[in-house]
């Protein structure tokens, strides 16, 4: 069974480590803020100039002036800092973000990512994605494995304009967790109830399948 958006965010949060500075992209990645383990100190960074985002606010906690880069209202954790977007991008470009989680339209088996435009469609735009993929070594993409029409988003070669080249090493989809190495997707985990055959049939790019592929754990 394919993962829900919340399950994708929960699995992404398992990639966090104590003391990390983490940037969460728009969409599914932002939901990971709700699944940080209580005993873990993670500082979430936003391109508009906020370090130390907390969970999404309850109705009585909403502050319309406190938003993330996607213009969603957020909360702050103790020790949070607010600064200019110029300083925020200096942090990103200087390599001071430990983990970046991005959404994407396509990723290919060379680690290229297309995430900012679909010709002929109105999309929010680049945002900070190009700076993030250029300034971060540790990036995980979370996305749907295939389009609504069933076309694979894990491509041999991206068909859409690229955000970055050769920068993606790990992809989490609603069907599987994969690493990208040597021009291939390497299947690491599969969603509960999803078969290796189903993942293979929905992956266009070259796919390496180890002898044992465990199901994801959400314990």
From TrEMBL:
Keyword Transferase attributed: yes
Pfam family, one: CoA_trans
Single GO MF annotation: CoA-transferase activity
Keywords of this entry: Transferase
This protein's record includes keyword tRNA processing: no
Organism superkingdom: Bacteria
Sequence similarity: Belongs to the 3-oxoacid CoA-transferase subunit B family.
Protein name: 3-oxoacid CoA-transferase subunit B
């Amino acid at each position: 069974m394919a993962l829900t958006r919340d399950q994708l965010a929960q699995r992404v949060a398992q990639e966090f480590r104590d003391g990390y500075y983490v940037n969460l992209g728009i969409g599914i990645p932002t939901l990971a803020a709700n699944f940080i383990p209580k005993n873990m100190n993670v500082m979430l960074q936003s391109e508009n100039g906020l370090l130390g985002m907390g969970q999404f606010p309850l109705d009585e906690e909403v502050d319309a002036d406190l938003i993330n880069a996607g213009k969603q209202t957020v909360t702050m954790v103790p020790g949070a800092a607010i600064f200019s977007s110029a300083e925020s991008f200096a942090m990103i470009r200087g390599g001071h973000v430990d983990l970046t989680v991005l959404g994407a339209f396509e990723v290919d088996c060379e680690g290229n990512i297309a995430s900012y435009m679909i010709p002929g469609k109105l999309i929010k735009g680049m945002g900070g994605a190009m700076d993030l993929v250029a300034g971060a070594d540790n990036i995980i993409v979370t996305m749907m494995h295939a389009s609504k029409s069933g076309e694979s988003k894990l491509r041999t070669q991206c068909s859409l304009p690229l955000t970055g080249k050769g920068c993606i090493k790990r992809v989490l989809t609603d069907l599987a967790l994969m690493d990208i190495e040597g021009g291939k997707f390497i299947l690491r985990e599969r969603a509960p109830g999803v078969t290796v055959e189903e993942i293979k049939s929905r992956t266009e790019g070259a796919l390496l399948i180890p002898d044992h592929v465990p199901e994801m754990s959400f314990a």
